[in-house]
């Protein structure tokens, strides 16, 4: 290691040199010597010492001499134009007195080698000044780097600024100014050391308890508790109370307690960590490329939605899950549902993040190209909340896909600042302008209930959020331009989409791609479906079919009374598709909703649940009406009358007589109904009653013959 002029070294246990910090004043290679000057904060004068250069370098190698720093005082680190004229004159006068000495090449070595050197004395006599003044100027010059500003006057240290002093008995501070000369103004008391101790005690007891407390409140409580005797005695003796003033209390509290401690102790640890601590850097400090970390979080949207089946049914406020790439600010996944924040809804957001978006957007009637939202990758790390992802399911299902799962501490939303800010952007640019919005605030008495204005369904909210996400990914964020040089090199605007694409093209990312079937199998909720004669049955109304060569044969087997249950995965965002393991040795196959169940095509799980709840409620609500009761009573009356008339009929000789000749009697009934005599008459009724014949003749007269269509004989 080189030993340079003005370099500073720490010396420990070196023969002939006292331990301490030294500055190298001169390097004399021809005689192999170094001149050192000890740096101390004392006002005493020091003399330079001499040491062998070889010994110095050997001790550096052994570690007994190490390189260190000695910063210059703040009043010396100023620009020349900022130095006052008087200070500049004092500096220049001091330097003129020692200029000839420090400019001489042999003065430093001779002065260090010879303790009785008279060069300084002779120079003082020549300049007509004191020897001690020259020694002090030389010490300052050597101590602070052998440059002119080392001789600036240190007036900012004068008077002991900031150091406590022992006060006398004379009243300090300005008296109270009054406009009435005859009014007696109390003199007040000085603040003693005992008073200061009481100030600290009162602040610890009332003002530093983890919540905001005003000085006036603490001062009032302090007087009532720590100065109670003085208050009582002053009132009984009818005199002025001899206690420190409120102004003195505030002054000494701010002086005795550091400002940072006041801030820290007057709030909770969580609030301090989120909103008051010093910032250590940006949110992307620990990420290098897209895919290094995805942030996932959920919030309740500030808007109420209605049922898609009945628009006048308000469902409440949906929950939106958002997945954001921390480095590029790209929104890579979205999920909106009526589920509360949970692992069940969170994994739906992960499925959306890890799979292509073109089909997802088409499900809501939005046609995009794959390049407009090219996010279907798995990150290196996933940062999320403890609430829904601390369960075993998240660790067992998500961790095999994602390299590392990080859980943010409780009450530390700022650790996921990127995704939290995305919610703020979506709310300000979209949600707070919709019908039924709460505008992010609590209901105030007198405001119109936002639920009365709700008009959008969950599907329509999804459409709007997808468009908002596409706009966000193409919006300009100036902070992105400072994170990489690839954007300016490629001539691209600093948008999340450009940031993502340019890093993908340069292969500078930490993203991986997984098979879509594997993503669905691992993350989607587990359900069971039943193989029936109509297809794969999920509930009362939903049947699915699959493009499998054995599917029709399986329906035949199921119709014979041998239905069986199968493992399935269900996507809450789209009821048109499920994934079913058709056979034990196979993976999951994609099954689509059959035509007979098209009413539930592309429905959200919330709509399906609402439909099932509606059926239950209607079934429970249905009761017999008044008309139904009337019809029931009429039926009972008819049956009763028929039974009574049957009992009045003459008795028969046998049971066989009741059923004998049924066919002949049937013909007679038909003949009577038609009013015709063409049917053959049975032997038991050869004689026709006269009233029947008369009725038949009248019936025949009323019959009108219609033209008959000619038959086609060509055939």
TrEMBL record:
PROSITE patterns membership: INTEGRASE
Signal peptide location: none
Integrase catalytic domain ranges (all copies): 286-493
Domain of life: Bacteria
Annotated region (Disordered), positions in chain: 640-698
Gene3D superfamilies the UniProt entry points to: Ribonuclease H-like superfamily/Ribonuclease H
Composition-biased stretches (Basic and acidic residues): 655-669
Listed name of the protein: Transposase
Taxon lineage: Bacteria, Pseudomonadati, Pseudomonadota, Gammaproteobacteria, Alteromonadales
